[in-house]
Predict the 3D structure of the following.
Amino acid sequence: MKHRIMKIVLYIVLALLGVVTVFPFIWMVLSSFKTNREIQSIAQSLLPEEFIPDNYLNLQQTFDFLRYFANSLIIAVIVTAIVIYTSCLCGYVLGKYQFRGKNIIFGFVMMTMMVPWSVTIIPRYTMFMQAGLQDTYISLVLPLMVSGFGIFMMKQNMEGIPDELIEAARMDGSNEFQTFHKLILPLCKNGISAIAIFQFLWVWEDYLWPYLMIDSESKQLLAVGLTLFNGRYSTDYGGLFAATTISIIPVIAVYVIFQKRFVSGVAAGAVKG
Amino acid sequence: MFKRRPLQSKSEVWMRNIAMGFLILYMTIFLIIPVVIVIAGSFHQWNPLNETYKWIGIDNYIRMFSYPTFWQSMANTVIFCAVVVIFRVLLGLAIAYALNSKMMRHKTLFRTIFYMPTVTPLVAVAYVWKIMYNPQFGLIDNIFGLDINWLFDSKFALIALIAMTVWKDFGYAVILFLSGLMSLPSDCYESAGIDGANAWQTFRYITLPLLKPTMLFVVVTSIISYLQAYVPVLVMTEGGPGTSTYLSSYLVYDQAFKQYNFGFASAISLFILVLTAIFTVISFRVTGAQES
Amino acid sequence: MKRILSLFLVLTLLFSLAGCAKGKETAAASEGVTDTQADKGLEIMGENVKYDPNRLVNGGEPITIDWWIWASEELFRSIADAYEEIHPNVTINIINNPWDGYFTKLPLALQRGEEGPTLFNVHNSYENLVLNYMEPYDIDTKELTADYPSAASHIMDGSIYYADYGLSTGMIYYNKDLWKEAGLTDNDIPATWEDFIEVAQKLTEYDENGRMVRAGFNYNNYFYSLALGLNYQFGDNLFSADGRTCLADSDGMKQAVSFLTGLYEEYHIGDKDFGTDCEQSFYQEQSAMVFVWGFFVGNLKDNAPDLEYGTFELPTRDGGTPYAYYRYNGESTPGINRNATDEQKEVAQDFMRFFFANDEVQIALSQDGGLIPARTSLMDSEELKDTPIVKTIGDHIDRYAWPGAMPSTVENNMKIATEDILYNGKDVDDALKTAADTISIDLANIDFTSSESLYTYYEE
């Protein structure tokens, strides 16, 4: 009996928390179908008086969100792919090889995680300005090619792979590059999924660096596009809701696709410590 | 442990050289050189717009310590960071523990829901919450029948930012703790059950110590990221009302890219780095101490 | 897994292709054509600054220049269009970077030399950030000051890098319907603050629970802006006699700030928590009167085209003519990028001459921006003599003081101080003292001297 009450209480509490978590999204989506007058009226209701798709339709006219969306997607996919590869490669070497200076290098990798953006952004900005890389996508991809977090996670992942497996492959005459690409990478699917989600999100929501670097409106990314939109049409709450809805959905989609592997990947990487 | 063996084949040496060469080159360009530049810059009056780069000794540091907004922002940052980390850990651990219990079903659904805010872009979320906090037509005042001007009241503005951040990020801790819990060996629990330990005792003396690595990971990564937080401030309050929601990283942004005092901003950012290091060491110590 | 991944990649590819295709379209459409006809039989424009449209720019070869703005895209587009019509070989790209961050992005872009914008709008409070990147106008300063008297204050080392196209100041905007609803007529337009409070009280409404549902007067996000200048009515200047120190903590300023907080706290004609953005609140008819500068005219047109509104001047303490009602500021003309290519600069110089000499351009700018034209001869033009600002303030703009191109630190720190006072309950004296101190630290690094002492009635 006590058990059942506990169970019910637990369910209620979790369900409540779940509602609190989801509610802002529901409110956002519903509000994106309201007129501006309705959004700002003092008498509020959750459901729109009438579902109006105008906010979405106008959005594309006033602001090329599809384009920002595409830009962000391209950059996020490229960076994520590169980071996965560099993390796996460095994680493999750091996790499975023994050589002098390994610990020092790994120490520096951990330091990259600790150094705040505010320290590196001024010199990075100065360097990129001098190299004439402003307004190019290279400037967005270059500084994100290596992730301390990713290397750390993959190193842990790699250490979980039995040495015997690698030895066996070596016996079969496969060289290290083949072993890495054909044997190791497929074994790390879970870890890769975890990094993919983290990294994709970080790129997707990164704001300051693209804001500083990209000038052409046609090259701008979605997070910056949102602030541009808000700066230009600060009164258009409906439009802002619609734009936000559009910018949130794809990440949720990526997450839902990868989520199964994600949890086990995190488990293999972070938790072991 | 694994067998220690030296690198044998040529391809292994190549592999190591390529990977580590790349890594060292990369870290030199994006970590070591920048830190050196910042340290040097913090001793200069540095404005890239009129190409000033003048040695002024420790003036930037003197100015920093006498700048009222600096101390305010540091206090705000520490409060913000501490509160968010505590809530993130507690909420994350509690929910993960509940989700992991044998009583629960629909785990995937709950897990997906709790992680949803975490995977959404912060800028977007901040705009939505800014409107949610509006005293006339915002969601929060309307639902709870309150009349609070969240973002313009110095008593609530920082709390408002904290609440949004906790909402956005607790899912991260849920996922991490959940995977930590799932990977715990089940035989510990069985022996505990035999010993007649109650649920709390099991949690306190068996689960928690075993979760130490996860805990450390969550706490350290959270501290690092919250000491650097600025987007909520940028979008929602711009540091106001007055200076009551200035966070130190926002101050760096403001000084560097609004006022173009690169030298001064460099000094502040180095202070944040030192603070991050101290906090990281403390959390290692605290978690380590619990063990003994 | 693989299928999902490939689907993802295909989607990405499609998106990028769509993006590229669109990009090419716009690029092709914006390419100018070669212009061979110099003499188009057009009239020469202008009084003292003259513009002859009957000549080729850049030898008639196609050329593109970028022009950065932060608001009023349609207006600036129409000006660019008018110029492109005369010179079809020139393409002017308008790039709209919102005000928040405009002066973060602009210096970055200007550091890129010729790849930065050729023309860029300037706000005089950020003069010190961009002056290094500006090319002086290739226009005789005597001619320019003859047409635009206020340009005289912008002469630096014998050249003008930017001038004003209009003068702006703050006014009270009121909602005519709500005004009528409260039983008020045109005769009720207040001249003294006392009358103003009475009117505002009539316009304020509460619901049955005593919660405000309409504010009589709302200055919320412009508190600092209103306070900076109201000090004149309370007997103090904004800067010291040598023009080097900001008197943000003068007695006059303290009184002005206390007076304004009193409007909310004592007379309850508005509330710091009601309508945190007073412009929005006015659009939604939730605030009956607001204090905003001239640019509000354009915003109202865009955001609340059906709203009937009127304007009146800031009331004074005794209803008579004060030392100064308030301050005014110039709306600056675009700057030219010193590091642009010679061809781009030639076009930009030609464009600026057109900009100054063309009456329609100046009239449109003043109409849309709610400005008093800096080209004084246009004050009496049909189109401008009835605009809200000219009608309200035109007669005695001489009773508005100009503190000079105040560096942004003044407004920023006053904003912090006034928020501290209004929202954080900080003591007026302390808050203003902090502001004054911080401003003087910042001003020490900037070469700025106030023009306040040039005010006509400075000796009063």
